[in-house]
Amino acid sequence: MLDDQAVHVDPAEVAFDRSIVVPFPPEARASGVHDMAFRRRIWYRRRLRLDPGMMPGPEERLMLHFGAVNHRARVWVNGRFAVEHRGGHSPFAIDVTRHLDGPELEVAVQADDDPLDMHKARGKMDWEAEPHKIWYPRTSGIWRTVWIEKVARTHVTQLRWTADVAVWQVRLDADVAHVPEGGMANVTLRLGERLLVADRCLLTGPRLSRIFQLPDPGIDDARALWMWSPESPQLIEAEVELRDAAGNLLDAVQSYTALRTVGVEGERFVLNSRPYYLRMVLDQGYWPDSLMVASSEQLRHDVLLIKRLGFNGVRKHQKSEDPRWLYWCDVLGLCVWGEMPSAYGFSNATVHGVMEEWKELVERDVSHPCIVAWVPTNESWGVPELMNDPRQVDFVRALYHMTRALDGTRPVVGNDGWEMPCGDFVSVHDYAQDPAVLAERYGTRERVAYTLEHVQPDRRRLVIDGFSGQGRPLFLSEFGGIACMTPVAAGQEADRRGWGYSVARDGRELLARYQELMAAVHACRPLSGFCYTQLADTFLEKNGLLTEHRVPKAPIDALAAATRGPDARLHDWHLDPLGHDERWRTRRGPDFPDAWSRVGETAEVLPYRSERPTATEPGPDQGAGATGAPEDDDPGAGGPGGHPARATRTGPAGFERRARPRTRKHVA
Predict the structure, then answer these.
(1) Biased-composition ranges for Basic residues (predicted)?
(2) Tens digits of per-residue pLDDT, 633-659?
(3) Which of 105, 175, 436, 469 fits 158 for a cystine, CB–CB 3.0-4.6 Å?
(4) How many CB atoms lie within 10 A of CB 63?
(5) Has residue 459 been placed in a domain?
(6) Is the dihedral of CA 203, 204, 206, 211 positive or negative?
């Protein structure tokens, strides 16, 4: 029920008058509603009868999970108020056991999302009725999967993995609910078929902290077979079992981790203690028919396309992406800058809301080895008066230091783009379209020092409030933005058709200009990496290397060669088109399907399963995942986006090997 004026306060008084396909938002065509009007409140109700196998016994619990509800969610279970959660991008869960009176389960959700509220975290969601410029349609209400799972009263609620490559150790921090007297935890770690750790320890409280010393292979060439990188995304399989004092199994979760370290050494970004040049692309994470929602297959396909285009990293822009996307970045090898969706205005509400939601997102994603940096603030969004208001400077610094406190293993960006008062990187947005201008500004350390002090690429100072940026890694973290459109006819409004920072008439011209820009950026030796704008066309922004349906606009091999740069042949000669090392490919195991690393170049092979275009619907994204449930052969069907009551494939070899009826899968 679409409650335009937010007049209803209790589900008992709501007239539910239509159906929707969750998790698609009502604005999306895939939801079956496709209503783009302003809605301050949306009501949902779902009734189901639990199978006998899902009914919790005396020592079991039934958990109800929400991937994300925008922006404030209030939930009733069987007519009883259960929980309120604020934050439109972070997950939450409810123990609904005490609300059960039998097998009947009724869940009602009130989702409040004022479209004009500029002080909540909203990312790219437009506040105007129609998308304009760089802003996109709103994503209201429930927009991530909702699912239930039955667990033991004693169960794992959270896992956190931390690798310390310097001493060849892996640390586990696990939160456990209702620890029994004499309870034990069994932890196993495997590298392929090799057993690395089989540990048993006494549970003395609700948190288990354990450090596992791994056998150090020694020399770099041997160590490389153990470590994660985009070229060799080696994962370590993990299982955590909880048992009572008599040895009875209470809970078992399967997970993974990786030996990977990131950091800063002087003016260079380092991966696994070696300088590493990041070739990133800006990814908005939108699909034409489903907006911010995608199937696991679509998410995997995007990761493969990014790698196929020659990139080894991605900056997911103004969005906390589905954990399944991070899973594919882990499995297939792609560095990620994790970013907080920004508010637009500054107030006490901004401080409280952004701080709390960002903490939840960092804690959700901290164990993913693919994430190599955090971006809590972008282009002064939410802090528009950084130059004049000391409170806003303090807020940016507070976000930076809080992120460092939550996760001391990754670099943190202070304010991506300009007006940086702090940060482990200096990350500049510069959309100069003349390659010579970029070379002049960033070609030497002397020119970089001059640029940081005197040049304002978007009429904004780059560093402020005593922060010089000197001696830190420098990234051109947004540039390019070449659109590919036919010339606008006389009398036709250009902004109705889309725009870019410059316009190429066809794919041939796009490729030539892309090659020139990339050649100039690769020649700028002070840079530690770049992020090209952008991966795919997104509504009015027509500056993607791919169309909105993920079709390349120019030959993909030529685009990839320009992305990798002229020196690629010196160090990438042993890599395949996806940037994978030959040694890793040969040992990834027979249970790693070839389809997981297969990507096409034409529209004919790009459509996803069950989403083939019809004669009247040319787009391959129509009705993406319209069933709302994963297919049995979907390798990403388990975990946060799937059905945990089934045994489904969720990862490479061994991830489902020891599945039991009570086994649950945590992707990270």
Answers:
(1) 659-668
(2) 333 333 333 332 323 333 332 223 233
(3) 175
(4) 20
(5) yes
(6) negative
